[in-house]
Amino acid sequence: MLPSRTKHVALIVEDDPTLLDLVTETVESLGHDVHSASSQEDALHLLEDTLFDYVLLDLSIPLKEGRFPRLEIGFNLLDRVVALPDARRPGIIVMTAHGDDHEFCRRALLAGADDFIKKPFDSGKESPEQAIKELLAKRQEARAAEVSGVRYDAGELGGVAKDAGPASLDAGPPSIHLVGTYDRRRCNIEINGKELQLSEQRFRLFARLAIYAKRSPGQHLSLLDVPEIQSGTRQALNRLRKDLESQVPGFWDRWIRNDGHGSYCLQVPSDSITYDADAMAAHGELLVMLAK
């Protein structure tokens, strides 16, 4: 958890001086302190010495000053930031002029970025200011939920708070019960007896991970085999991760593994996954897979 301080602190990683000035001006207008880096090397040095609340990361950056910028360098830096310990891990907003290529958006979000905005910026949803405000609001909600034991529907700023402390993950593999009933257009699951609510899309994605873990323990499920991802909802997995982390802190990092090639594995014993057959009838295809 980030310590209490009077100002948010931002790191901007951008090698274009004009865009760096523009984003810096935006961040400073919010009253935040700003540090900047124009290469991966400079950014890593700053991340070692400073605790940042969030990073605005251009994907096309050079490895060192004077080198040619490359997208793979930005993705490598993204991986390094995501891998930081939770206490030091800032929020991450990826910025790129390649935003029309949905594969880059998907790859950044699946790698752990919190948001993705395209350059050139506009004054609406894709603006740095709006993205920063939304990111900080969500992180504040998650911290408040962790401290107070009140959970929120992650990803929904107007979500309804419910009294439910985080499920304990200290007593071995979690028990996962797929319920699937609808409540305010959300579907229910239980982890260690605690009720969670996910949007239908995220519920179905989590259910597929659970079904694969039940039928093929230890094997990774390729996202190419998940219709919820193929349909174009590239942010589904990242939002599922946020939902689970908000409601059951530590679950995702402890029990879900990524093979680095777009495949994921829910690493729990098959007998710890159960389901409500009557309620899951509302999700016919998933029920058929569970019953096999």
Plain-language structure description:
- This protein is an alpha/beta fold and 292 residues long.
- It folds into two domains: 9-143, Response regulator (Rossmann fold, 3-Layer(aba) Sandwich), CATH 3.40.50.2300; 167-291, Winged helix-like DNA-binding domain superfamily/Winged helix DNA-binding domain (Arc Repressor Mutant, subunit A, Orthogonal Bundle).
- It has eleven helices and 14 strands.
- It has helices spanning 17-29, 40-49, 71-82, 102-111, 128-148, 200-215, 227-230, 236-247, 251-255, 277-280, 284-291; strands spanning 9-13, 33-37, 54-58, 91-96, 115-118, 150-151, 162-163, 176-183, 186-191, 194-199, 221-222, 256-258, 263-266, 273-275.
- It has a five-stranded parallel sheet with strand order 2-1-3-4-5, with helices on both faces.
- Strand 8 (176-183) and strand 9 (186-191) form a beta hairpin.
- Helix 2 runs parallel beside helix 3 and helix 6 crosses helix 8 (236-247).
- The protein is elongated and about 60 Å long.
- The N and C termini lie far apart (43 Å).
- The model is unreliable at 150-167 (pLDDT under 50).
